[in-house]
Amino acid sequence: MGKRLAGKVAAITGAGSxxxxxxxxxxxxxxxxxxxxxxQEAAGAAIAAxxxxxxxxxRCDVTAEEDVAAxxxxxxQAFGRLDIMFNNAGIVGAxxxxxxxxxxxxxxxMDVLLNGVFYGVKHAARVMKPQGSGSIVSxxxxxxxxxxxxxxxxxxxxxxVVGLTKSAAAExxxxxxxxxxxxxxxxxxxxVANVVTDDPTAIEETxxxxxxxxxxxxxxxxxxxxxxxxxxxxxxxxxxxxxxxxTTDAGLTTGASPNPPAFNQYQxxxxxxxxxxx
Length: 278
What we know:
- The protein has eight helices and seven strands, in the order βαβαβαβαβαβαααβ.
- The longest helix has 29 residues.
């Protein structure tokens, strides 16, 4: 389709691996320039070097508002503007029964998954409002749509990201700024690989495990699937879309599963009092 982000500048948190790295590569390939932020300094710097003059890396801990503000400023100063903010950084965070979850772990998880997104939306809006345009994209999850798919804190934070997306979209639309989020299922990324295999580098093994349980036959979810969704939301192709939660889940949140649905074989219609047929 050509250079879908030609002339556009993006800031991406959590850009050192997974969805963030895939999005950074895709955005540059589509003509954009990117400011990459991550606490994984070596990985982030390596990706920026790989992408050349179209990318710059800055260390960014999303739990520190000043770091997120600095990432936004780096994008604007290095490339002259900010068109896209991709709030991607994330962790699994606190795990376990609600009655054994340490408050400190709850707060630390929320700090990354929710406060980090808030800082990104806040500072992107600050830069985008004067220019009268922009696209803010944040990472939620299928756990932000349904219960029981993630740990408690993760689930609460991802639901909150959906709410913040709608609230910010309602406010910022009159300034020409669109706000959307993406809700993926478990995808073949280092974070999911660590959960599935205890090895964040075991991507191929993770793909096989995910494919075996995918609603789409033999098809695992990939980091590139989320990057493609982010590209669409970032580009002018989604120019009339705001406040939306875009799923990349093979239909999981609509009830799709690897198993046949209930009532998948014909039988005469079921009527009152145990009667059947017309």
